[in-house]
Amino acid sequence: MSEAGPPILQVDHVTMRFGGLVAVDDLSFAAKPREITAIIGPNGAGKTTVFNCITGFYKPTEGMIQLRHPAHPEPFLLERMEDHEIAARAGVARTFQNIRLFSGMTVLENLLVAQHGPLNEASFFSFAGLLGLKRYRKAEAEAVDFASYWLEKLGLIDRADDAAGDLAYGDQRRLEIARSMCTRPVILCLDEPAAGLNPRESAGLNDTLRWIRDEHGLAILLIEHDMGVVMGISDHIVVLDYGRKIADGAPEFIRNDPTVIAAYLGVAEDEVELVEAEVGR
Amino acid sequence: MEYFLQQLINGITLGSIYGLIAIGYTMVYGIIGMINFAHGDIFMIGAFMALISFLLVVSLGVTSVPLALMLVLFFSMLLTAAWGWTLERVAYRPLRASFRLAPLITAIGMSIVLQNFVQLTQDARVKPLPPVITGGHILTDTGTFSVSLSNIQIVIILTTTLLMAAFSFIIAKTSLGRQQRACEQDSTMAALLGVNVDRVISLTFVMGASLAAVAGLMYLLYYGVIDFFIGFVAGIKAFTAAVLGGIGSLPGAMLGGLIIGLIEVFWAGYFSTEYKDVAAFSILAIVLIFFPSGLLGKPEIEKV
Amino acid sequence: MAEGVVMATGARSIEAPDVGEALKQAIIASGIALILFIAIVGIKTENAQGGLALIYRFGAAFSLAATVGVVRFLFDLFVWRGLGREIMQRWLPAGTLGTVMTALVIAAYLLGAYYFIVPGSRLALAETLSDIFGDNEWRSRSRIFVELTGQLVIAVFIVLSAMGIIMALRRLFSAAIPASREAVPPAARAEKTTLAEFGQQFAPALLVIAVILPVLVAGPQQRYALDTAIQILTYIMLGWGLNIVVGLAGLLDLGYVAFYAVGAYSYALLSTSFGWSFWICLPLAGILAAFWGIMLGFPVLRLRGDYLAIVTLAFGEMIRILLLNWQSLTNGPNGISQIPKPSFFGLSFDRFGGSGTKFHEFFGLQYDAVYRIIFLYYIILALALMVNFASQRLRRLPIGRAWEALREDEIACRSLGINTVTTKLTAFAIGAMFGGFAGSFFAMRQGFISPESFTFHESALILAIVVLGGLGSQIGVVVAAVALIGSSEFFRDLEDYRMLIFGASMVVIMVWRPRGLVSGRAPTVVLKEHKVISGGLVKEGAG
How far is A97 from chain B (nearest CA, A)? Predict the structure, then answer.
C-alpha cells in the first residue's frame, strides 16, 4: 500500500442529473495507484452512475474527472472524452454488473477484441493484414500470447476455444476481468464482480484482485455489495447514499461510522444505537 | 392560400389512409416487436375483398349506397381479418421467441406469396370501380380557383377519426386492451399471470388486418382502381409513417400517417410529383436523426 | 394424460394416432381455408367492357379448402404425431433414418453416375416412362420429372465425387509428409473423423466444380446452364457483400440493392461516356459504391434495429427514384443501353464489325457466341472468389473481430476502446463496395440497365439468401443462393406458380431452420482445438 503520490483518478464535484432526478450529487473522491478503492452504498445510491461517468457512458452534468496516466505528462479530462477513447487512450477498463461478454465468440476471441487498438494499428488498418504481411502475423501471435497469459492466470486456459456464452457464471465473471485486463489499463473498474459467486469463488476473486494490484501495480475501483469482499481487500472505501458521499476512509473507519450504518439500516442517525442494541450488536 | 387549403384537405385524406395501415404495423410491432412486412399486402387483400364484396352486393340487387357500403365494410373486414389471423398462425407463430431476422424473412416470403396468389386468382390487370360516393362541397370559390371537399373525403376522414377513437378506447379501457398492453411490456410475465398470449397476439393481427381492410376500402373508393401490387408502395409508406410517429405508439402511427400524407401531397403540389417519395423518405431520415425513436415513441434508454 | 406422461418416461410411448382429433383439426383448417378462399378464389373479377364482371368459381374455392383440410389431416396423422411419428420412433430403430438417408444418397449417386457416364441414358429412361404412360399429358409430365430429377442426381454425383477425389488426393499427399497430428485417433473414432473430413471437402469440391463447370455442362444446354450459373454467382457475391453488414456487423440493411445500382450505373456511365474499360471502371464503381455506403452510414449510426431497417429501405427506394427521374444523367426509365461488352485482352467477342482482331480469329476458332458467356462466367467466378477471400481474411483481422463484437454487444465494444462509429462505417463501406463490384459486372453482362432491375425485391432476395444461408456463414450463402435462384430456374416450367413457390419456400425453410441452413460459427482464431460455436449463442445484433 503506498500512501504517497498523487491520486491516479480524481473525481471533483461531479453531479449527474437525469431530468429532475439527481443520481450523483456533488461527489468528490480520489483513487490512488496500487490501491483498491471500493464504492459502496445501498441500492440506488448512484454507484453505477459514477462508473458510467468515469468510463464515459454518461457525460456528467457538472464536475471534472481527471486521470493521471503514468505515460502521459498531462492528466486526461475524462468528462470531455468519448467512451472508447477513455478505454483506448486513458487506460480505464471496466466490467459490467450484468456481464457483457461476446457470447458467440470464443474466450480467446473475446480477449483479442480487447486488444483491438494495437492490433488494428499493427494490421495497418487492415491493409497489411489483408495482404497477410509478417508484421501483422507477429503482432497477432503476441496478442494471443498475452491473452494466454491472462487466461492462465485466471484459470480459463482450458476453455480458450469454447464460446464465451458456454462458460459457467463464475467463469464468465473472471473472463470479463481477463478481457478488461487485456486492454492494458492503468485503472480497472469492476461493477459488482462478486455478484452471483459462491463463497469459494468469491475468495478466489479476492486473491486475484490483490494479485492484480500488487503484481501489476493497478489501481482498482470496485462497486460491491458483498461486505466480505469489500472489507477483505479494500484499501479505501467511499460510501454513497442518495448520490451523495457520506463517508470516505479506510475500512476500519467505515465499519464504525454511524452515518454509514444508518444509511444501510435505513434509519435516522440518532436511532442507530437503538437499532444496534435491538439486533444485538 | 386556396391552393394550400385544397392540398391540406387532400393531404389529410391520404394521410388518414396511411394512418389506418400504419396502425396495423405499430400494433404488431408493439406486441411482438417485429416488422410485419406482409401487412401492406394484407391491405391489398383488403382492397380486393372490398372490391369483390361490393360487386357481389351490387349484383345481388342492393341499391342503397349506405347499406351496400356497410355490408362491404363488414364482409371485407371479416375476410381480411381471417387472412391476418392465418398469416400470424402460419408464418410468425412458429418463429415466436426465435431470432429476430427469421420472422422478417418469412414476412417477406408471405408478402411474395400473397401478391402472387392474388395475381394468380384475380389476374394482373388493373381493376377499376366507378365512383360510388359522388358529390362534394365547394368551400370557397375565388373565381379562378375553388376549394372543394368531396363527400368521399369526408367519409374517409370521419371513418378514420371514428376508428381511431374506437381503437384508443379498446386499448385504454377494455380487458383486451389491458392484456395487449401487458403482453407488450412483458409477455412471459403476462402469460404467468394467466393472459392467453397466443390469443392476444392473434387478436392483434385480426385487429390490424381489419383496419387494413377499412383502409383498402377507402383506397378503392378514393382512387377507384386497384391491382395486386398496391400493397407494396402503400405498405412501405405506412411503415414509414409508423416509424416516423414512433413505432409502437397508436397516436404516433396516426400522426406519422398524416405527416407522410401531407408531405407527399404538398411536395407534389408545390414542387414535383416525381420526388414526392424522396421527400417523404428524407423527412423520415431527418426526423430519426433527431428523434431516434420517432416523434411519439418512447425513447430507448441505453442501459449500461 | 398423466398416464401418457408416465409412459413417455418409460421405454417409448406408443401414442395412439388420434384420428378423431386430427379430423377435427382438419375440419377447422378447411373451414378457415374456405373463409380465406371463398372470395378471392371463388369470385374472380374479370375486366370486361365498361367495368368488371364477376365469374363465380366456388368449386375451385371448395376444392382448395378441402385440399387444405386433407393435407392438414395427413400431416397431423403421419408427420406431426401419431402414426408417422410412431413409425419413425418405434419401427425404425435408432439410426435407421440415417441409414435410409444414406441409402437415398447412394441411390441418387448411382443414378447420377449412370446418367453422367452413359450419354443419352436420361433420355432413354424418359422415353421408357412416356411409353408406360400412354396419354399425352402424363407423357410430358414424366419427361419433365425425369429431366428435373436427372439434373439433381447428376449434381449429387458430381459434388460427392469431387469431394471424394479431393479427400483421396489430400490423404495421398499428407501421407507422403509425416503426419502433423501425433496422436492417431482410436479406431472407433476413425470412421467419424473420416466422415467429418469428407464433409470438409464440400467447399473445395464446389470450387473445383465451379472452375470446370463450362466443360461439365458442354452440350446444347451449355449456354443456358452458364447463364444460370452466372446469375447464381452474382447473387452469391451480393450475398457475401451483405453478409459483412448483416451477418458480421449485425446491422440490418434492407436497401442493399442501392449499392448494386450505384455500381451498375457507375460502370454504365463511365464506360459509355468516357469509353473506359471494365477493369478501370470496376474499382471506380467499387469506390463510388463504398462512398455511398459511408453516406448512408453517417445518418443511421445512431439508429438501431427496425429504425435502421426502415431508413436503409428508404435509402434504397430513394436511389431507385433518383435513377428513375434524373433523366439527363440516367435516361430515366428507359435506362442505359449499349454498354460495352467485355473483351479478352482487347480481343472482341463479336462476330463481325468494329475494328481489331476478334477472339475467334485470333485463336483460329469457329465463331461461337458461347465464348463470351464462358469468359463472363470466369470473370464473375474470379470476382466472387476475390470477395470471398477478402471477407474471410477480414473476418480474421481486428476489424472483422470488431464487427462481430459489435454484433454481440456494442456497449462492451465501447468499453474496450473500439470506435464503433468507424467500425460501423467500414462495414457499410466494404459491404457496399462488394455490391458495387457485382453491379458493374451486372451492367457489363446485360449491356443494358434500367431502374427496374434495382427494386426492393432484389434487396429482399439478397437478404433472404444471407439469412436462409445462416448469418455470417460464407458457404451458407452459396447453398442458399443455389437453392433459391436454382430452384426458381428449376420450376421454370411452372411459370405462374414459380414466384408463389419461391415465397412459400422462403417461409418453409425459415420455419424449419430459423437460424439458417448453416448455423454454426467458426472461430477466427484457435489456441488448441477448433470448435464450431453453436448458432444459438451467436447474437444477431441490435442494429
Answer: 8
User: In this structure, are residues B55 and C45 in contact, taking their beta carbons and an 8 Å threshold?
Assistant: yes
Q: Give the number of domains in chain B.
A: 1
Q: Is pLDDT larger for residue C501 or for residue A267?
A: C501
**How close, in Å, is residue C499 to chain B by CA atoms?**
7
Which residue in chain A has the smallest CA separation from B302?
A57
Q: What is the DSSP secondary-structure string of C263-331?
A: HHHHHHHHHHHH---HHHHHHHHHHHHHHHHHHHHHHHTT--HHHHHHHHHHHHHHHHHHHHH-HHHH-
Residues of chain A contacting B302 with CB distance shorter than 8 Å: 57
Per-residue pLDDT tens over the stretch C322-346: 999 888 888 888 889 888 887 777 7
Q: Residue C85 pLDDT more than 70?
A: no
- Nearest-CA neighbor of C416 among B240, A84, B31? A84
| DSSP 8-state assignment for residue C244 | I
Element (H, E) at C257: helix C257-274
Contacts 24+ apart (CB under 8 A), C101-106: C105/C156, C105/C160
Total structural domains within chain C: 2
**DSSP-assigned beta bridge partners for residue A17:** A22
Residues C365 and C504 in one domain: yes
Q: Which range of residues forms the domain containing residue C372?
A: 222-537
The pLDDT tens digits of the residues spanning A192-224 come to 998 888 989 989 999 999 999 999 989 999 998
Identify the chains in contact with B, defined as 3+ C-beta pairs within 8 A.
Answer: A, C
Looking up residue B215, the CATH number of its domain turns out to be 1.10.3470
Please indicate whether, in this complex, the C-beta atoms of A183 and C529 are within 8 angstroms of each other. Answer: no
Q: Is C422 on the interface with A (CB under 8 A)?
A: no
Which domain does B96 fall in, by range?
2-290
Of chain B, the percentage scoring pLDDT greater than 70 comes to: 98
Which residue, C56, C75, C91, sits at the end of a domain? C91
Give a yes or no: residue B300 inside a domain.
no
C271: CATH: 1.10.3470
Gap from C101 CA to chain B (nearest CA, Å): 26
Long-range contacts of A76-80 (CB under 8 A, 24+ apart): A78/A53, A78/A54, A79/A14, A79/A53
Nearest residue to C313 via CA among A37, A275, B129, B239: B239
Return the closest-CA partner of residue A220 out of A192, A249, A188.
A188
Nearest-angstrom CA–CA distance, C453 and C441: 13
C385 assigned to some structural domain:
yes
Chain-chain contact of C531 with A179 (C-beta, under 8 angstroms): no
Each residue's pLDDT tens digit, C32-68 = 999 999 888 988 888 888 778 888 999 999 999 999 9
Mean pLDDT for B243-250 is: 86
Check pLDDT > 70 for residue C16.
Answer: no
